[in-house]
Write a structure and sequence with these properties.
The chain is an alpha/beta fold. The chain has a domain at 3-54 and 170-225: Rossmann fold. The chain has helices at 34-50, 73-78, 82-100, 106-122, 128-139, 154-168, 177-180, 184-196; strands at residues 3-8, 17-21, 26-30, 55-58, 172-176, 200-205, 214-219, 222-225. The strands form two sheets. Strands 4-5-6-3-7-8 form a six-stranded mixed beta sheet, sandwiched between helices. The chain has a two-stranded antiparallel sheet with strand order 1-2. A hairpin with a 2-residue loop joins β7 and β8. α3 runs antiparallel to α4 (106-122) and α5 (128-139) packs antiparallel against α8. It comes from Isobaculum melis.
């Protein structure tokens, strides 16, 4: 269980709010107004913080100006994997030492190289380009890759920023589709990608979009399953 809100009565907006969500689920919540979204997000993030689960809310005022305007979109996306590139460099240095037999502790270096190689593989080091390609295609931003962030429109910058968040692999991504100007196809692709990466999402929408595990709406101050 990733998230469980049971009989929350802190707000007059929902009465008693009950909401449960498993890991890897893609949930849509349909038709909430701005105040209801804000209240719901506060309840969800409070619970996630108590459980020490990672999350991102997008769009969010704190994300404004996050992109390095002097970098191309491709460089920005590659920077999401900085730690993996540093690990790869460390592995290559060890391999050179082992090949030249410069290290007196040859067996120790070989053992460390093996452990680092396993870590690199487990963290998806050989799948970086594949992950970037999946996100880029899902958001239809292939044509933006060679452009610097400073050359992008506000909508394009928002999509590029969303791409970095998708590559970040948080436990739960909370998206407001109504503020993102995403097409239904793009949102469906995003949810499929998150499911493949074993991540979860809550997406606020105005209508049901294919790709969700569950869908909810508010009736009589209760969050209920939406009829799809």
């Amino acid at each position: 269980m990733l998230l469980a809100l049971n009989n929350c009565t802190q707000t007059h907006l929902f009465g008693q709010l009950n909401f449960m969500m498993d890991e890897q689920e893609q949930v849509q919540i349909i038709g909430l107004n701005a105040t209801e979204k804000k209240t719901f997000i506060q309840l969800v993030t409070h619970d996630l913080q108590k459980q020490q689960q990672s999350y991102r809310v997008f769009p969010s005022p704190s994300e404004h100006g996050f992109l390095n305007t002097e970098q191309t979109v491709k460089e920005i996306l590659l920077s999401c994997f900085t730690e993996l590139f540093e690990l790869q460099e460390e592995i290559e240095i060890l391999e050179e030492k082992i090949a030249l037999e410069e290290d007196r502790h040859f067996s120790d270096a070989l053992f460390l190289q093996g452990r680092l190689q396993d870590t690199f593989t487990d963290l998806g080091g050989y799948e970086i380009e594949t992950q970037i390609e999946q996100v880029v295609q899902g958001l239809a931003i292939q044509q933006l890759l060679p452009k610097k962030a400073a050359q992008l429109s506000s909508v394009q910058q928002q999509k590029a920023l969303l791409a970095t968040i998708l590559l970040d692999k948080v436990d739960l991504l909370i998206l407001d589709e109504t503020a993102l100007m995403l097409t239904s196809i793009e949102l469906t692709r995003i949810q499929h990608y998150l499911a493949e990466m074993a991540n979860s999402s809550i997406c606020f929408t105005n209508q049901f979009i294919v790709g969700a595990s569950q869908a909810y709406c508010v009736k009589n101050k209760q969050l209920v399953h939406a009829t799809i």
